[in-house]
Amino acid sequence: MIIxxxxxxxxxxxxxxxxxxxxxxxxxxxxKLLFDxxxxxxxxxxxxxxxxxxxxxxxxxxxxxxxxxxxxxxxFLKKNQKAKVYLHPLAFGKYYARRPNDRLDYIGLDTELxxxxxxxxxxxxxxxxxxxxxxxNVVQREALPKSNGxxxxxxxxxxxxxxxxHEQNLVVEEDGRFLLxxxxxxxxxxxxxxxxxxxxxxxxxxxxxxxxxxxxSGGQENPEEIDRIACALIGTGAKFFTCxxxxxxxxxxxxxxxxAQIEYLSAGSEVxxxxxxxxxx
Length: 281
Known about the structure:
alpha/beta
């Protein structure tokens, strides 16, 4: 299994553009998957440089209803004529973020795409393919990240704090090893890991994705909380590849505690289940 990072906030070199968003290409022995499509058509442009043909993708999973993860959906539907697109039924809700000047910006998906014939609404634990599924309805054993602050959903005409019921996570099993992919972990990375454990009776071998420990809307988790989470992640025994909304400063702090157990992904990077390396320009 190999994972290529098509979109992330940073890039490995000037050969790859970057944007605030996330898109990951996952190739297994039996399928070619796309997890999120960033905020624009950048995922397609970087895909070409990474020898990924978007037209060959078998399925697209969009983690939640924010534009930095699903903004490239129209481009995907145009360039790929076969893949189903798996989203939570609430993903096309109206979502907003409070900016530093107190302005509320719409950050949701293009609702005109919600009725597209290839859209598949998922639920709870939903199969995507052989040994591949998404899950939502994460049990919140502890509070959601503080960096969720400033994120809202419109409910009956009122803008209220988002509960992130629209968020889902991807699980891929290959050769008896489990890969868990999170988009932003708005439901809390530890809550998501515990939920995975309740489904599979074990922790995953690999985890890829953002942990939402920093945010343009909600600030950054305090150092003590970051250290607590890092300690808990060490205890899972999994190998972590993080990115996007974890934040570079937070990553550096976690890296100082977790060592080789955590790495950072940037646009243009490639990951195998045995490690990480950068593609030659």
